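Sat 14:20. Reprocessing the chain from the morning session after the first attempt stalled halfway. Input below, unchanged.
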Amino acid sequence: MTAEDRPASSPPLTERQEARRRRILHASAELAGRGGFDAVQMREVAEAAGVALGTLYRYFPSKVHLLVATMQDQLQRMHGTLRRRPPAGEDPAGRVAATLMRAFRALQREPQLADAMVRALTFADRSVSPEVDTVSRLTTAIILDAMGTEQPTPEQLSAVRVIEHTWHSALITWLSGRASIAQVKIDIEMACRLIDLTAWGGAAGTNSEAGARAESDGSRAGTGSTTEAPQGAGRG
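Finished this time. C-alpha cells:
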C-alpha cells in the first residue's frame, strides 16, 4: 500500500514495518496461489512471513482484510506494468478494453490466487471498506490512464463504474466456469463502448447549449434586438 492508498488515520510505516508488510503479502499470495481461499490460514501466513501471529493481526485483522490487501498489491503491480507498457491505439474504448484484458490474463495465469482475492472482496463487510475502496480506486486509475483522461466528467466516471462492475462480474463468471475467455472479452469490449457514448453525450450537450443560445438570440431578434440569430438556428 502506498502512502496515498493508506487511510488518512494510519501513521506511515517505517522501512522495517513496510518490509514486514511486504513479506506478509507475499506469503498470502503464495499460499493463495497454491491452494486458493481455504489455503490462506493466518497462522501459516505468519510462519511463512516470519512474523508473530499477533503481529500479523495488527497489520490485518482478518483473512478477508489480508486477501483484499493482497489484491491491492496485485493491482498496484499491474498498474506499474501498464504504465511502463501502455496499450497502443487512438480509440480510448479500445485501449481500456485491451488494458482490462491484459489485467484479466495476468489473473488468469494464477486462477487460485484470483479466486481467493475475488472471494475476499465478495465476503468483505463494512470493516473492510477502506481496503475495498482502495481496490476500486486502483481499478479506476487503471481505466482512466488507459483512457488518457486526467479530469473525467461525471458521465465518464459513471461509465468507468459500470466498466469496473462488468470486469469484476466477468472475472467471477469465468472463475466459476460459467463464461469463456472469449465471452469475457466480448462483455468487456461491450461495456467499454460506454466511453464512446460519454464522449458523444458531451458533444451532444455542447450542441444543445449552442442551439439554446441560438434560439435565445433569435427570440431577441424578433423583439427588436439588433443581434442577428446565427445562420441555421432553429434547424435540428
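Residues 140 and 157 are 8 Å apart (CA to CA).
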